[in-house]
Structure formats: structure tokens, C-alpha cells
Amino acid sequence: MNTELLEALEILEKEKDISKETLLEAIENSLLTACKNHFGTSDNVKVYIDPKTCQFSVHAEKTVVEQVENPVLEISLSNAKMIDSKYELGDIVNVEIKSKEFGRIATQNAKNVILQKIREEERKVLFNQYYAKEKDVVTGVVQRYIGRNVSINLGKVDAILNENEMVKGEVFKPTERIKVYILEVKDTTKGPRILVSRTHPELVKRLFESEVTEVRDGTVEIKCIAREADYRTKAREAGPRTKIAVWSNDPDVDPVGACVGMNGARVNAIVSELRGEKIDIINWSENPAILIENALSPAKVVAVLADPEDKTAKVVVPDYQLSLAIGKEGQNARLAAKLTGFKIDIKSETQAKEIEGWLDVDEEYEEYEDFEVYQEEQAALAAYQEEYPDGEEYPEDGAYLDAYEEAYEGEPEDSDYDSQEPFEE
Questions:
Q1: What integer is the mean pLDDT of 243-271?
Q2: Which end of the chain, N or C, is less packed with Cβ atoms under 10 Å?
């Protein structure tokens, strides 16, 4: 048994995660390379390795002839008889080759073949390991700044955090631990090249999955997410901000409350990881008007007129809520548009009244002192008509409000936590 070789292979298999079979194949190829360098050819050379004991032998197949012209491929009958008396002319004789007889150059080339194979396999193992983590969140240690980019150590390999994938205003210190989202893993001759991000919306989603049990097990779904955090955003002074819409598959579980946690513990942990980024958590709804109203949180909305076909919406807010609905540098309205997929036109109540026919409800609205009452009754009538589409006679005097309440029973209101100022650390 070749104990030293066996122990070396086991150590490499454990530390580099390279299989013993692959290493034995590398040794076989290295011996063939050494034979080719020493004899000029390896076409007639066979290498035998026992995977259990790591004992190996090298033999050259030579043809028995009367007169030897090529000693590498042929052997004389007399020499063949010395090995075994049964050999005759034309037979094939396996002649053992002593690896110790190889010259210095042949030995060095064999060594290089083994090292090259180990490097290739190590690079392949690393690539497969991190390729499986692509589009996922990992924890890394800040190494150093390379220009305006940052080198992040992920354990066995370094990743690059480009400037345009950094959150505005973030400054990192060496040895600091941060969470990053793996954007892409490329296989190169120098090993895997990994690009990571701190601005990708999926980073926030993955953080919620790791922090919120209900999101991880599928009870609560993150239906959509919108985020502005990088240098390319239009709102350079507003700061990073995220809006997410959540939905519960269990009527007994409040999706917003589950994400916020007791006293905001869950969401504050995520906000802390994102260094104080504002996060709005809203209830998702199949009704685009309700979704748009929730998406404009923390602003209060008076009325929403949504066109699902054109993906446009008109929104009326109280005069004193207009700036809050639009947000600093338009960030709140822009995130709401990204979240819902609608082009949103926001007007104050005064502006809506001044523009004739802007909501196409002016005449009917005049009969109501409160726009919210008008909106509620119109929604109630639509719900009743949807329940009875065959043209039945509708109840009078707003009695269909019961149908509205029944249709929207259980529609959860937004948590007080996100109806106020967005989350801050």
C-alpha cells in the first residue's frame, strides 16, 4: 500500500473538495506525460492504479521481433524469453517501466500536469458552489476598496461590489460583515468572477424570507416590490426607500403585522441591515384601485379611478396630503407606480375640481358633501352589479352598501406601523 499517496489524496479530497477518482486520473495522465517526454511516445504505455491502495504500475506494450529497430515499441525474442519462456515472435509483452528512471524534465512535467488538474478542479468546484447561490443572499467580509468598487470576501473566493450596485451614501470599513445579493457568477481562467449588489430589490425580499417565518413557509407572499437605492435613481436627495406589497394565504394571519413583527422587531432587523433604509409594507389587493391607494401610503387618498387596460390611474388626495403623496423629489409616487405597474396621475381635491371632467364624476359628486362617501357608494354599486350581473333590480337608497361590506369583508387595513412615517432605524 502506498500510504503517503493515499493520505495526500484524502487530504486534498477533504480540503479542496476534489474527488479521489479525479486525482487518480490526474496522476495517470501525469505518468503518461512523463513517458511521452522520456521515450518520445506514450501510445503503447498503460498505467494501472489501485484506487484502494494507491499502488500503481506503468507498463509498455512491446512486440516480439527477431531484430529490434525501434526499442520503444519492440523487444527481441531473447529478451522476451527472459521475461517469460512462453513468448514467441509476434506476441505482445508488457514491460514494466520504473518511474524513478524518468529524467528531471519528465518528472517536472508530470508534476505540472497534476498541479494543473488540481487547479482546474478546484476552480470548477468553486464555480459550481457559488453558481448554485446565484440570485441569493450571502454574508461577506469587506476586504478593501478597488478604485470606487469594493472587494468582498465570501469565504473561498472574493466578489466585486461595483459602485453602481452600492446604496447611496454607504461607506464600508475593512473586516466589516455585510449581506449582499449575488447577481452573476462567471467562470474564468482565474477562477469564478462574482458580481454582487446591495441595491437589488431581491435583496430586500430575501432578507424578509430569512427574517419572517411566515414568508419563508409561504403563508405570507411578497407579491411585488419596488426599490430605489442606487446612484442611478432620480431622487438623489430623498435617500433609499422600498415598498413591498404582501398577501396572506391564511385569513387568520395579518401579512403586514407578520412582516413588521412584535414592536417592529422583524422589520427593524432588516432596516438595520440596510442601514436605515425606509421600508413601506402594504396590503396587496387584486383591485387595482385599492392597491394604488395602499401603494401611496403613508398619504391618505380620497378617490382612485384606475383603467386596467391602459394601466393608467387618476388619484385625488386632500390638499394638505399632495406633497406627501408625491414624496420628496417624486419618490413616493414613482415607487407606487413601479409597485403597481400603473401610470399614476395625482391631483389635490382643489385641482381635481378645477379641471372639468377630470374624474368624469363631477355632476354626481356635487350631490355629496364628502368625496369618500361618493367613492364608497360607487364601489358598493359596482360590487353589487358584479354579484348580480343578469340585470336584476338594484336596491334603492344605498341599501347595496351591505353587498359592498360583504364583498370586502376581511379586507385588512394597513398597519399603523406603515401608515405613519416609513420605518427608520
A1: 93
A2: N
Residue 114 φ then ψ, to 5°:
-65, -45
Q: Which amino acid is at 263?
A: N
Q: State the chain's mean pLDDT as an integer.
A: 80
61-93 pLDDT tens trace:
888 888 887 887 888 888 888 887 787 888 888
In a 3-state reduction of DSSP, which class is residue 227?
strand
Q: In sequence order, which residues have a C-beta less than 8 Å from that of residue 58 and are 6 or more positions away?
A: 31, 35, 45, 46, 47, 48, 96, 97, 99
Q: At what angle do helices 288-295 and 331-340 cross, to 10 degrees?
A: 150
Condensed to tens digits (0 to 9), the pLDDT of residues 186-245 reads: 988 888 999 999 999 999 999 999 999 999 999 999 999 999 886 555 545 678 899 999
Which residues are registered as beta bridge partners of 343? 312
Cα(85)–Cα(80) distance, integer angstroms: 7
Dihedral (CA of 416, 420, 424, 425) sign = negative
Report the sign of the C-alpha dihedral through residues 104, 106, 109, 113, in that order. Answer: negative
Spatial separation of the C-alpha atoms in residues 338 and 367, rounded to whole Å: 35
- Is the pLDDT score of 425 beyond 80? no
203 residue type, one letter: L
Measured CA to CA, the distance from residue 346 to residue 313 in angstroms comes to: 8
Tell how far CA 27 is from the center of its chain: 38
| Eight-class DSSP state of 102 | S
DSSP-derived 3-state class of residue 305: strand
How many helices (H) and strands (E) would you count in the chain? Answer: 16, 15
d(CA 397, CA 48): 96
d(CA 138, CA 412): 34
